[in-house]
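Deliverable D4.2, example record:
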Amino acid sequence: MTVLQRLSLFLLLSHRASTRRYWEVDVIRGIAILLMVIYHFVFDLTFFGYYGVNVFAGPWRVFGRIPAVLFLLLVGMALAIGENRAEAKGSNVQSRSYVVRGLKIFGWGMVITIVSWLYIGQPVILFGILHLIGIATILAIPFLRHRHPEIWLLLGFALIAAGLRLNADPVETPWLMFLGLVPAGLFQLDYFPLLPWFGVVLTGVGLGQLLFPGGLRRLELPDWGEVFGLRQLAWMGRQSLLIYLVHQPVLFFMLYLLHSFPTAG
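Output generated by the structure prediction step:
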């Protein structure tokens, strides 16, 4: 088996998912993926000239950041919930499982990097949200060993503030862009550096430890997981990686075909 085949198999094999899920977590993740699809659809409309709006500034920029924040908070929360459950059963931090999961998600990010380079050209997506989630999943492991939600919340906020400050000052080298230090004029379509965004993941870890001690809900909620609408959102939340990977090629291809058809008159 070649190296490329081994890498393909590694990416396609799914990691073991928890058999006990919380409907509210899946619903929020489903809302996030739905908002992201909407944002990318608007981006595609502008790319093909059907909608004249700047999606990188103003209200649309804010709109595009909402699903990203939700996703990254849930990444941290899911890690904390899973580890809280493991500890309640007497297990240690599942470092190997998290490393494998992180590398797999980072690998899909690299696939997007290659595809963007082949089909879009400049700007290439060098450190997008999947790159970030993959690395953040691994970096979060030490924080899962200790139950200090208040500390992780404060540290998360501090990293966010530090990242926003770093993003404001351009540098001369592109090699630190994964941290949030970018040269002036370097534009990325999908750019989520570790600072400030790892701070959002760490905030999610704190929230997960605070709201799901022992992997169990601190607050009682009605069982609305099968309510129409919420059930569909929860399904989308469980399939979020797959939807993320396929939705943009599907939208782009559909609009490309529409754009290729000659208009009447």
